Amino acid sequence: MIPGPFDYHAPGSLEEVISLLSEHGFDAKILAGGQSLIPAMRFRLALPSVLIDINRLSELEYIRQDNGHLAIGAMTRETAVEHSQAVKQGFPILADAAEVIADPLVRNRATVGGNLAHADPANDHPAVMLALGAEVVAKGPEGERVIPIGDFFTGFFENALQPNELLTEIRVPTPSSRSGGAYLKIERKVGDYAIAAVGVQLEMQDGTCTRARIGLTNVNPQPLRASNAEDALSGQQLSEDLLEEAGKAAAAQCEPSSDLRGSEEYKRDLVRILTKRAVRKAVQRAQGESS
Amino acid sequence: MSRHEISLKVNGEPVSGEVEARLLLVHFLRENLSLTGTHIGCDTTSCGACTVILDGKPVKSCTLFAVQAQDAEVETIEGVAENGNLHPLQEGFWEKHGLQCGFCTPGMIMTAKAFLASNPDPSEEAIRHAISGNLCRCTGYNKIVEAVQYAAEKLSQQSESEKEEANA
Predict the structure, then answer these.
(1) What is the pLDDT of residues B153-164, one digit of tens each?
(2) Is A6 on the interface with B (CB under 8 A)?
(3) A170–B contact, CB cutoff 8 A
(4) At residue A1, does pLDDT exceed 90?
(5) How close B51 comes to chain A (CA, Å)?
(6) Which of A12, A91, A116, B132 is the most exposed place for a label (fewest CB within 10 A)?
C-alpha cells in the first residue's frame, strides 16, 4: 500500500516548523514518530499534501525534572520513557504505560507528543496524562501557550492545537510522596490497541483517598476522565465496596462500541474490573509497598 | 509531490538515489537497492518482517519514508554475515531450528542483533519482550528464543577470546 503524494519538508529549527505550519495550515501534517500517521497514509485514511518532518529537532527529545514537574519533550521516543530512571522512580503509571504501548520496534520511533497530538482515544498516553493532570505546551507564531490536558482532547481524533501550532512539551506535575499510580491494559496481543485500559493516580492519607484521577483508554469516542469514579473515591476511607462502586461508576460513564475486540458489555465490565485493580495497585504504591 | 536526493549508508556502504517523498524505506531497500532479504509481511506496522537497524535501533522499515533515512546508517540482513561466515544469530537459527518457513527470520535476526548489542546476557523473559514486535506463525517462538540464547552465548565467548588475545 502506497501513500498518496505529498511535499516533504524536514526543517532544522522550531521557527521553520512554525513558519511552514503558518504557510500550509490544514494541508500540512506534522510527521513525528510516524507510527500512526504513516499507516493511516498507507490506508489513505490520511492524505496530507504537505508533511513537515520534525525528526531533526533533537532539542525536543528530553526527559528532565523541572520545578515541580517532569518535562517531556514532544519528540521523546517511547523507548526513552520506558528506560528512564526518573520515570520508573517517580511516575510508575507512566512506566506501566510505556512498556505496553504498541511493541518494542514501534516504541523506537513512536513519540509521546505524537501519541497525544494524534488524539486517538485508543492511544495510551491520553488516559495516563489525564490521570496525572498533565499540561501540554503549544508553540505558534505568537509564542507559547500551556493547555491543561483536560482541555486538549476536543473530539474524535481532534485536539485543541491551532493549525499553526506545534506541541513541544508535556509537563507532568510531580506527585506527592503519599501519591501512587498505575496503568493497567488488556490487549489481545502485543502491539494491538487496548480492549480497555485504565490509568489511576491517587493520594492517600491514613487509609483515606484524598484525591483521585482516573483516565480511560479506548472505551469512549474521545479520551475520557472517569470523573464519577473519582468522586466516589475522593475523601473516602477505601474499602472493597467502595472500589466496586468506583468501578461501576467508570463503567457507566464511558461509551465503548462493540467491535472485533469485544462487545460493549464486555468492555464495560473490563473497565469496572480494571478500575478496581488499578486503584488497588495505586494504593499499594502510594503506601510504599512493592508491587 | 516532491522528489529528493538522498544519501545514506547501507551495511557500511554509501548509497544514494533520487526518491519520491512517499517511497517507504523498505521499498527503497528492496526495489532500488535489490536488497530483498528485508521482507514485507503485513504492510500494516504489525508483523516486524521488515525490521532493519536504523542508527543502532531496530525499526519497521515499512513505517518510515526513505527520505527520512538521509545521513542514517541502515543495517539489513544482507550485512549480518561477515566474510562468508554466518553470524552467531544466523548460526543459532540454523542449529536450534529457529525457522520453518523463514519469512519472519530476517526481521527476527535484526531485532535480536540490536537487542544483544545492548543486552549481551539476557534472561529468557527479556528476549521474549525484545522480540514481541516480530510475529512468527510457524515456530511458536520457543526455538527462536533458543536461537537467540545460542547467539548470546557464542557472542560472549567470542568477545572473551578477543579480550584474551588482546591481553596476550
Answers:
(1) 999 999 888 888
(2) yes
(3) no
(4) no
(5) 8
(6) A12
